[in-house]
Amino acid sequence: MLLRFTYLGCFVCLLASMAGAQANVHPADANSIVQRMLAAQQENKARVRPFTIKRGYLLMDKKEEAKARVVANITVLPPNSKQYSIESSSGGMGEKVLRDILTKETEPPRDAQKKELSRENYDFQLLGEELLNGRRCYVLSLNPRREEKDLLRGKMWVDAETYNIHRIEGSPVKNPSWWIHDLYILMSFAEVDGMWMRTFTHAVANIRFKGKYVMESRDLEYRPVAQTASRSRRNPGILAGSALTP
Length: 246
Known about the structure:
The protein is an alpha+beta fold. The protein has helices at about 1-25, 30-45, 95-105, 225-235, and strands at about 50-60, 65-75, 80-90, 120-130, 135-145, 150-160, 165-170, 180-190, 195-205, 210-225, 240-245. Strand 5 (about 135-145) and strand 6 (about 150-160) form a beta hairpin. It is globular and about 50 Å long. The N and C termini lie far apart (about 85 Å).
């Protein structure tokens, strides 16, 4: 009996030591997770190089029938310059909606710090852990500190090893316009050529007098553009925030 208790005591000590080691590797509180997430974001910003993404935009109605399509090439020139060209488009008024979304995405950032995932803009709470695409992730709630249309109330999934954000979903704390309500947004992120970036967006909204509409944007192709970036540095005003449409 004494031998059994000795083995049991050793086993309990071993479990306690393993749990303690795991706690040191994987923080279990929101503050530690957010701190490492913010550090990962800064590292990712330092890795961004000039590139062009071919992105497809699709607008669907409540019957999931396609109403408009736009394919655009978006060139990103760090730190804040963007330009785009329309490769193909169709869909009448729906096409105009997609073009407006594209234009807004490529505008020079204004008050970017007020839209960031930061402690100044959000309160974070740890909700638990989930597997997402085979990766163990911490799930944190997003609770905006202010009622602004650019802040989301929802959740985000943070990789438990790299602390990169895999997914964000939620609704703006304030409707972006009188015409739009019940807006829901989901964004997915992935590594592209060593850079961590948004690659997919799914948005659902109810439009007054029109009903439910769904917008999706998906990255289709990536190309580095070192030579374009070199020309832009010599004359940065030419490319910043411009729209090259046929």
